[in-house]
């Protein structure tokens, strides 16, 4: 899915509400701003960001002497575009001389396995040699689920038994990557986010194993977040993201929520870039995050 299809629910639940408001109220007054504020908060844009946005809009209304509510809609999309735009790098960092190692962390159910499968497909389509490592040895069924994706996209999965040491799986996977000359190694982890010290302990052990083989790896540590959980996703990222070496966020299930405003909130409140977005359950439904395409998908 492309941004336009994937963002249909957000377009209906958020942008069309703004359009209705504009038609209904016609005039820009206090009540107009109050209702607009409610819509934006309802779309999970985040209270602080909404207050800022409303303030900016008031300023623009004054400056441009806007009276008709309809004229404000393009200004709103422009402001949201400004909030999303940044000089940070949204693209995945790949290793130019050898295997690129990408680690995934995230709580159960956010779409971690699915994202790994989709990304394996994406790289395979580009003609790259991909290996997946079943490092989530903790969750029942995680290994089998990754194997299903492996078969689906035609990518080898390195695994051990359930309950085994994820660092040992990673060691095997690195050996396999070396032997086969793999371009990309995608590593699932249990990433136990219930507890920060557990997560750090597990990640540090994995980092050590990886760095013994490839000193500048992992090249990306992606934290997977479920967009349908809205502000919860944001607090997970705040709590665990910034100090655990996370280099990018993956926001899944954007197709399943009307609250696409969460992307704006994350962009405003975190210094970690959103690198990928999930726009459906199929293997093609993963896109690199692009603020222009996002705003375009939302507003048109
Ligand atoms: P994990 O426990 O984090 O590995 O989560 P899974 O990969 O098993 O995903 C949990 C559920 O979310 C599955 O039913 C997936 O099909 C679904 N899912 C994952 N990503 C997306 C997405 O971008 N859009 C939609 N609609 N569903 C998704």
TrEMBL record:
- PANTHER family in the record: SIGNAL RECOGNITION PARTICLE RECEPTOR SUBUNIT ALPHA
CDD domains per the UniProt record, alphabetical: FtsY
Every copy of the SRP54-type proteins GTP-binding domain together lies at: 273-286
Quaternary context: Part of the signal recognition particle protein translocation system, which is composed of SRP and FtsY.
The EC code for this enzyme is 3.6.5.4
**Can you tell me which residues bind GTP?**
106-113, 188-192, 252-255
Keyword Transmembrane helix recorded: no
Q: Which family does it belong to?
A: Belongs to the GTP-binding SRP family. FtsY subfamily.
Instruction: Give the protein's biological function.
Output: Involved in targeting and insertion of nascent membrane proteins into the cytoplasmic membrane. Acts as a receptor for the complex formed by the signal recognition particle (SRP) and the ribosome-nascent chain (RNC).
**Subcellular location, in the record's words?**
Cell membrane; Cytoplasm
What keyword terms does UniProt attach to this protein?
Answer: Cell membrane, Cytoplasm, GTP-binding, Hydrolase, Membrane, Nucleotide-binding, Receptor
Biological classification of the source: Bacteria, Bacillati, Bacillota, Bacilli, Bacillales
Locate the coiled-coil region(s) and give their ranges. none
> What protein name applies here?
Signal recognition particle receptor FtsY
Instruction: Please write the reaction equations for the catalytic activity of this protein.
Output: GTP + H2O = GDP + phosphate + H(+)
Pfam families, per database record:
SRP54, SRP54_N
> Primary place of residence?
membrane
HAMAP family the UniProt entry points to: FtsY (MF_00920)
Q: What is its membrane topology? A: Peripheral membrane protein
Q: Membrane among the record's keywords?
A: yes
Organism of this sequence = Paenibacillus shirakamiensis
């Amino acid at each position: 899915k492309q941004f336009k299809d994937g963002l249909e629910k957000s377009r209906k639940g958020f942008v069309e509400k703004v359009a209705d408001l504009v038609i209904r109220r016609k005039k820009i007054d206090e009540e107009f701003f109050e209702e607009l504020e409610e819509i934006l908060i309802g779309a999970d844009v985040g209270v602080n960001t909404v207050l800022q946005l409303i303030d900016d809009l008031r300023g623009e209304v004054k400056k441009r002497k806007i009276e008709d509510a309809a004229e404000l809609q393009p200004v709103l999309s422009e402001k949201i575009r400004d909030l999303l735009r940044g000089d940070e790098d949204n693209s995945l960092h790949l290793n130019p001389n050898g295997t690129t190692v990408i680690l995934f962390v995230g709580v159960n159910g956010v779409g971690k396995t699915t994202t790994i499968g989709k990304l394996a497909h994406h790289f395979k389509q580009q003609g790259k040699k991909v290996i997946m490592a079943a490092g989530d040895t903790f969750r029942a069924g995680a290994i089998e689920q990754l194997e299903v994706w492996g078969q689906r996209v035609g990518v080898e999965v390195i695994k051990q038994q359930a309950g085994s040491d994820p660092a040992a799986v990673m060691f095997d996977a690195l050996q396999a990557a070396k032997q086969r000359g793999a371009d990309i190694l995608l590593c699932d982890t249990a990433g136990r986010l219930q507890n920060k010290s557990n997560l750090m302990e597990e990640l540090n052990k994995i980092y050590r194993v990886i760095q013994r083989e490839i000193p500048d790896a992992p090249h990306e540590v992606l934290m997977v977040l479920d967009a349908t959980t809205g502000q919860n996703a944001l607090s997970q990222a705040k709590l665990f993201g910034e100090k655990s070496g996370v280099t990018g966020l993956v926001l899944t299930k954007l197709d399943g929520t009307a609250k696409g405003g969460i992307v704006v909130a994350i962009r405003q409140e975190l210094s970690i870039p959103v690198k990928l977005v999930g726009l459906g359950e199929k293997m093609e439904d993963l896109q690199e995050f692009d603020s222009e395409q996002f705003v375009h998908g939302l507003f048109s």
